[in-house]
Amino acid sequence: MFATRTDALAELRRQLAIMSETADPDGPFLAGPELSLADATVFPTMVFVWNMLPRFLPIGEAFAPEKEFPALARWYSRVQELEPAFKRVAEEVQARCPRPCK
Questions:
Q1: What is the pLDDT of residues 80-94, one digit of tens each?
Q2: Domain for residue 101, yes or no?
Q3: Most exposed: 36, 37, 57, 90, by fewest CB within 10 Å?
Q4: Global pTM?
Q5: In the chain, how many domains are there?
């Protein structure tokens, strides 16, 4: 679908920006006050974004999801506080690849 990794990552970042803009501002979950399929679907992608995406960017390219996707970054942190299963998944990945992964 994409000619280059750069194109694919640009599309991922574009879609994450859309999700960040459309996340329910009152939350605490992506689509409102209750945990939904949206949370379960987006969470693994955010684990990748947080922990692995920096490994795939061009050397020297800055990446700060907290600035680029502020609503998703807040949600990513909050959902781990509210849902122990989400926190365990993130911790398992981070244990194998501390941020930033190298």
A1: 999 999 999 999 888
A2: no
A3: 37
A4: 0.84
A5: 1
